[in-house]
Structure formats: C-alpha cells, structure tokens
Amino acid sequence: MFAFGALRSLAENKRAAGVFLIVVSAVGYGLQPIFGKLAYAEGISPATVTFGRFLLAAALFELHYAFLPRGARVGGRELLTTVGIGLVFAAAAFCYFISLQYLSPVVFSFLYYSYPAMTLVVGALFFGEKITAHHAAGAALTIAGMPFLLGGGEVAAGAAGVAWILACSLCMAFFFRLQIFLPRGRCELYHAKIMTRTMAVVFFLWWLGEGAPDVRAGGALWWVFWIGVVSTYAAFTASVVGISYLGANYAALLSGQEPLWTVVFAFVALGVFPAPLQVFGATVVLAAVFYINAFCASPAAAPLSQKTGGCGK
Fold first, then answer.
1. Is residue 22 a part of any domain in this protein?
2. Which among 29, 38, 202, 234 is placed 20 to 30 Å from 19, CA to CA?
3. For residues 266 and 106, is the Cβ–Cβ distance under 8 A?
4. pTM exceeding the 0.85 threshold for the entire prediction
5. DSSP letter string over 123-179?
6. Helices 133-149 + 115-126 axis angle, to 10
7. Where would I find the H helices in the chain?
C-alpha cells in the first residue's frame, strides 16, 4: 500500500517525479563502470561491450520512438548533423571503455566528471563563449582535485587509463557543445535513436575487426545487457523526462550525484573504496561539478522537447 501510494504521489507531483527520474538516471549511469568492470572480469572485450551496448540501446530507442507522435519531416542536413554528433559520442565511448580497463571505477568516475570543466574551456576556445569568474572557479576546482584523485599509485598503475579518460571527457565536452547545431522542435529520443544506430554500426565494425570476440561468452554477456538497457536506454530516457519536469539547470545540479553512486556500488559489488587522499580529491571534483552546474549553466541548454513539446507531451 505504501509503495502504491508513493507511486501515485509521484504521478501527481511532476517536481517529485522529476527528482525521482533524475536519481534513477544517476544510478543507471553510476552503475555503468561497475557493469563494465564485471564484464571485463569475465573476459569480455571492450569491443564486445561497446557493440552490445549500442546495439541494445538502438533497438530500444527504435521501439520507444515508434510509439511517439511524429514530428516535422527530417531533412538530410539534420540527419547528417545527428550522425556527426553521434560519431563524436562514439569516440567518447571508445575512450571510456578503454580507460576502464586500467583504472579503479571510483577514480575513473571522478576523472570522467572533469568534462563539465572541459565543456567550459571548449566553449571559450571554439564557440566564442566568454569566460566568467564562475567558469574560472569551476575549472580551477576540478584541476585542484585531480592530483589527489591520482594518488595511491593510480598514476603509476594506470597512466594510460588517465590519458584515455581525459580524452573521453574532452570528447564529451565537444559532444555537449555541438548540440547547438541540432534544430529546435525535435524530440531528444529521435536524436538518441539516430546516434545509437550510428554507434552500433561503428562498434560493429570494430568488433568485426577484432575477430568477433566473445560470441560464445554465454552468461557473461548479461553485464553487457545491463549496460545497454539500464545504463544507456533507461538512464537516458529517465534523464530526458526528468529534465522536462524540472528544467535543465536544476536537473543538472541533481545529476552531479552520479559518481557517488559509483562509489557505493564499487564498494558493494567489488569491495573497492578510495584512499583518504582520493576521497578528498573526489570531494573537490564533485564540488566543482555542483558549482559549475549551479552557476555556469545556460537557460539555452534546456532540452528541445521542454521548449516545444517535441516528444509529444
């Protein structure tokens, strides 16, 4: 009865539902490095993980989008732009899962969260955005926390992993900045459908180039299934709907909890917990994430469907 009452309350209160969905999204994304580590422990290759992730996600987005009202006719330019941005995300995903082989999931997650600061820098260098005191403070906080995160022998053991995850964060910065080239009025799920379809093709070619590994991996492929369903499709969809209820800025602030869930699940599933200095570094980086989301977000970054009803709301 209590659970039914709670669900009914969420359905009637969009703000509460939005908070709930952003938390669900953060949990889904926070679980991704854990699922990845568990897949690697079973001998699954990064090529299989990425191909399986985007194949499943593309199928689910296709199915979901089939039940939504159709928007305006899609032009060739929009399609090519969406595919191009999908290729940038593919580069980020490639770096992400290569890096995960080298680093502990906790350090990995907080280093990945350098992308909000990188997004500010990319905006200033390539998109003509003015650097403010808030921008500088957020970037400085991120940089200040990194040396502590990389303590405890993490650099010596995983220098390649650090390089790969910072490359991933840089790709994510460009991915977010390039969203301005997507036309207004289109549902985000349409763009997600096209991008995941693009990435499924890209990673299928990588998987084939690696000799189609893990085709007989059996039960170990369940971890890939959870990455595709929980940490990609479900997390993204919950995020889109949650943002439509809360607005982009408040939702971004709440989503900063994502690496905390990685810490919790890393301890529960893997018995991994950061050293004291790494906890301090993680705290500084997390403070930078919340600071950037609170003081540097632009109202123009609100989701397209929130402005136009493009998802059929």
1. yes
2. 38
3. yes
4. yes
5. HHHHS-PPP-HHHHHHHHHHHHHHHHHTTTTHHHHHHHHHHHHHHHHHHHHHHHHGG
6. 140
7. 2-12, 14-41, 46-66, 76-99, 105-112, 115-126, 133-149, 154-177, 188-209, 222-228, 235-246, 248-255, 258-265, 276-295, 304-308
For residue range 75-90, list pLDDT tens digits in order: 788 899 999 999 999 9
Q: Flag whether 297 is in a domain.
A: yes
The rounded radius of gyration (Å) of the Cα atoms in the chain is 19
Number of domains in the chain: 1
Tokens (6 digits) for 228: 């595709």
CA-based nearest residue to 188, from 307, 22, 93: 307
What per-residue confidence (pLDDT) applies to 308? 35
**225 in any annotated domain:** yes
Residue 170: domain span: 18-65+76-212+220-308
Structural tokens at position 62: 């296709």
State the chain's mean pLDDT as an integer: 84
pLDDT in tens, 216-256: 777 778 999 999 999 999 999 999 888 888 877 677 778 88
Asked if residue 6 is part of any domain, the answer here is no
